[in-house]
Amino acid sequence: MASPSKQTATGDTAMKTAADVGAAGQVHGEPVLQARGVSKAFSGVYALKDVDFDLRPGEVHALLGPNGAGKSTLIKIIDGVQPQDEGNVEIDGRARVQSDVATIFQELSLVPSLSVAQNIFLGNELHNAFGMVQKKKMNAVAQDLIDSLGLHLPPQELVENLSVASRQLVEIAKAIHRNARVLVLDEPTSTLTKADELLLFKSIRDIQKSGVGIIYVTHRLTEVFELADRVTIIRDGRKVLTADVADMEMSSLVREITGVEPQEPGPSKEAFDRFAHPELLANASSGPKLQVSKLAGDRFSDISFTAEAGRIVGIAGLIGTGRTELLETIGGMRRSTAGEVRLDGRTVRFKHPWEALSAGVALVPEDRHRSGVVLQHSIQRNLTLAHCKSLHKGGLVDNKAARSLIRGLVETLQVKTNSIDSPVQTLSGGNQQKVVFAKWLQPGMHLLLLDEPTQGVDVRARQEIYRVIHRFAEEGAAIVVASSDFVELQELCDEIYFMTSTSMSEPEKVTPEITDQYIYSRLNERVRESHERDHRQL
Amino acid sequence: MKGFVRAMSAITDSFSLTKPQWRGRSAMDLVREYFVYIALVGLVIFFSLASPVFFSVQNFANVGRQTAIVSIIAVGVTLVIVNAQIDLSVGSVFALCGMASALALQHISNFWLLGALAAIAVGVVFGFVNGLLTVKLGIPSFLVTLGMLGVARGIALLITDTRPVLIANRPYFSIFGDSNILGVPIAVVWTIVIVALGFLLLHKSVFGLRVFATGGNPQAARFTGVKTHRTVIISFVITGALVGVASLLFTGIAHAARPDVGVGLELDVIAAVILGGVSLFGGKGTIIGALAGSLIIGMMNNGLVLMGVDSSVQQIIKGAIIIAAVSLSKK
Fold first, then answer.
1. Of A45, A395, A426, Cβ closest to residue B10
2. What is the pLDDT of residues B28-48, one digit of tens each?
3. Could you tell me the end-to-end alpha-carbon distance of chain A, in angstroms, rounded to an integer?
């Protein structure tokens, strides 16, 4: 195995462990990572509660759970970027040091204009007595390291010329060069093509042999069966189970991930009656409200579907299939490259969200921090901006009218806050999302495009948001919900389309038989079909 | 319980961004919040003690007149900075606007309004180009306006081959220069009018809301239907127009336009705006704060002269005070 000039004690241990594992040919030994009783709270709400997690050398350990379950919090605590409130994390039975854990994020931390070898050695370059960088030696050492990991990367190639998967491999090589004991792969395949995915999987199997422990976070359950030795599921901040993958089946995995959500009482009917906007009933024609045919754009193509007034249509798709891009294209944030969108029978092609808004089409974005609100501004400022059409007199905002309208919205949507002057960033995730919804609660909105409407929102707030969505539908709006939360689709929608990046299924009516398990297996089936089709075409 | 307490304190802290909340906040927090006003009062007291002529109606009128140019341009630059943009070209455009006014009066018609319109038109054109290049080509406004700083100065020097242009127009001098209204210098009247309009625009109008949203989170602003490009361009155009107005106040006093004036003016204006609590990252700031910042800059210029401080030492003191003030007002 290649070693840098300054080999540390940990590095030697890593090599020894690697030899052990290699000889035995299987996973065994003391855990490389041991987390006990880890808890973490944000603003008084537990994101993680008393979670145990262990990782054996040479193991791929899948970490699963629904959105907002606390997976990313756990990873950040293991990585050390976020301190835990309670509990401890040990590496090889000792306290963690910074280089122990390497998280390979989707936004990679490489310098694109430097070579593979330069990136691997970034910050601890090999140099001679005069401080001159020894380029040849670095390339040779990098080549040895790459070979020992079974990777295929040219050390002199610039990173900017590599595919996304190869870049991830450079990240991994860099981490192992720095004696990382634990690698965290967070949704590594979400931006990969199928061919790159196969390359990554092969490399992961080779890297396992070096004795490094791998935590693998994914929403794609098929990958768990393909790669992982064990699986840990967390839900609502608590560990549900840790088990050998060999003992699990797809259906039991889905059941454990989704769990059974407790029924919470929603807001009272009176609150809703106050909030009802009779203007919403505007042009409630009986025909299809939205017709999308053979639409193509960023990361999706050949997508057709229909949404009718008063109905809630779900679009089920895995991460990276272009769901967000589809909604943003219809709502004017992106341009389509082919196909047609019809609103009430008329062809529309919005070039900017304001065009969509003035046509009564609201695009409620997925990432509320990035796109939904201005976090540091008050609730009032955020909402006044969205509602300014009805609140201004000759260009000046009518402050009194604005405050009374916003108080009404906050009350109706049950946003929990002391004051409408509080910055949105002081609210909990669910309440922030209610503020985002309040922005679109305007007269005349008759098509709502909702992207992951309850991501990171707790169960109770989620129910309240569902009522709001239903209310919109009752008033005659057509609603399109894109979500990777299949329980949500099942609970919320009248019918569901299954989307891959190159196709859309026929709609299926939601009946009690359409469970989230069914949605999941149906979707994987379609992904497999489309991959097979792609392979045949190749 | 611990978490609850933390959540509550986060909520109380949050009020500082919007409304002053006296209870439960340390004295230091209040000092930071109102730093620019405290510094302003502090400077008045300091200079009054240091110079016998400082604390007089006459001298305050002087300060107001000398500060008018920075204050008026600061209103525009506040809009630009709240948009999360910057304008470095105001000093050069200031010189060019003055030249445009004087040349129009000399060569086309010696009617005061024509000069005024010429100055404002040049400012508007430069503001429009600044804004357009920033949003359409996606060049950071720092670079666009740095380039325009050179372009505007070059044109100003080129048109008369660096010679000043005299103005001989009595109404022009009265309207923009040396008259008083009820004892208040006309430059101060202009300042009050423009600051008041700027206040209405940024804090009371729909446009102001859009400026805050565009600077605070442009992506969210677009999703909300804000035409963020238009908002940025309009802010640059307003700045250009105000630079034009400020140049009239200068030429009205000087009775001439010179192509080499306003060098480094952009730095005074930006320092004033930042002193006034406007965030360079956008989305946060007030017109009144920017005015207070401008008064601090103006008063330092005036007070240090009255104290007989050498002009090179003045620059050092000014620079040091700006750094100290900004670091103290920062959290």
1. A426
2. 777 777 888 888 999 899 989
3. 37
Q: Do domains A9-258 and A269-276+287-537 have the same CATH topology?
A: yes
pTM of the model: 0.73
A371, A388, A439: residue with CB nearest B209: A388
Average confidence score pLDDT of chain A: 81
Of A42, A375, A386, the CB nearest to B224: A386
Tell me the mean pLDDT in the region B159-164: 93
Question: Which is more confident, B250 or A73?
Answer: B250
**A474 near B CB under 8 A:** no
Task: Please name the residues in contact with B251: beta carbons below 8 A apart, sequence gap of 6 or more.
Answer: B98, B101, B102, B115, B119, B167, B172, B176, B177, B257
Measure the CA angle with vertex B283, ends B278 and B284; round to 5°: 35
Q: Establish if A390 touches chain B: CB-CB under 8 angstroms.
A: no
Q: Is A88 on the interface with B (CB under 8 A)?
A: no
**Paired tokens of B30:** 């209040």
Q: If you classify domain B31-329 with CATH, what class do you get?
A: mainly alpha
List pLDDT tens digits, range B90-128: 999 999 999 999 999 999 999 999 999 999 999 999 999
Q: Assess A329–B contact: CB distance below 8 Å, yes or no.
A: no
A396 touches chain B (CB under 8 A): yes
A191-222 pLDDT tens trace: 666 667 778 888 888 888 888 999 998 877 77
Q: Which residue has the higher pLDDT, B142 or A18?
A: B142
Q: Fill in the amino acid letter for A231.
A: V
| CB B160 within 8 Å of CB B106 | no
- Measure CB to CB from residue B220 to each of A374, A388, A426 and give the nearest one: A374
Range B225-258 burial, b when 16+ CB lie within 10 A, else e: bbbbbebbbbbbbbbbbbbbbbbbbbbbbbeebb
Q: Name the residue among B297, B278, B243 with its Cα closest to residue B84.
A: B278
| One CATH from 3.40.50.150, 3.40.50.300, 3.30.70.360, 3.40.50.2300 for A269-276+287-537 | 3.40.50.300
Instruction: Say if residues B266 and B74 touch (Cβ distance below 8 Å).
Output: no
Over residues A289-343, the pLDDT tens digits come to: 899 999 999 888 899 999 998 899 999 887 677 888 999 999 999 999 999 999 9
The per-residue pLDDT for range B202-247, each reduced to its tens digit, is: 999 999 999 999 999 999 999 999 999 999 999 999 999 999 999 9
Candidates 3.30.450.20, 1.50.10.10, 3.40.50.300, 3.90.640.90; correct CATH number of A9-258? Answer: 3.40.50.300
pLDDT at A175 over 90: no
- Count other C-beta atoms under 10 Å from residue A261's C-beta: 15
Distance from the Cα of A437 to chain B's closest Cα (Å) equals 11
Q: B231: which chain A residues are within 8 Å (Cβ-Cβ)?
A: none
**Minimal-distance CA residue of chain B relative to A416:** B11
Report residue B255: phi and psi, to 5°: 60, 20
Q: Where are the domains of chain A?
A: 9-258, 269-276+287-537
Is A357–B11 a contact, with Cβ atoms under 8 angstroms apart? no
Half-sphere exposure of B49 (CA within 13 A, CB side): 5
Q: A365 to chain B: nearest residue by CA? A: B223
What is the C-alpha separation between A387 and A352, in angstroms, rounded?
18
Contacts of A363 (CB under 8 A, 6+ apart): A327, A328, A330, A331, A332, A333, A353, A356, A449, A451, B223
Of the residues B4, B21, B224, B238, the best mutation for testing chain A's interface (the one with the most A CB atoms within 10 Å of its CB) is: B224
* CA A291-A297-A302 angle, 5° bins: 55
**How many residues are recorded in chain B?**
331
* Per-residue pLDDT tens over the stretch A459-468: 567 777 888 8
- The answer to whether residue A85 scores a pLDDT higher than 70 is yes
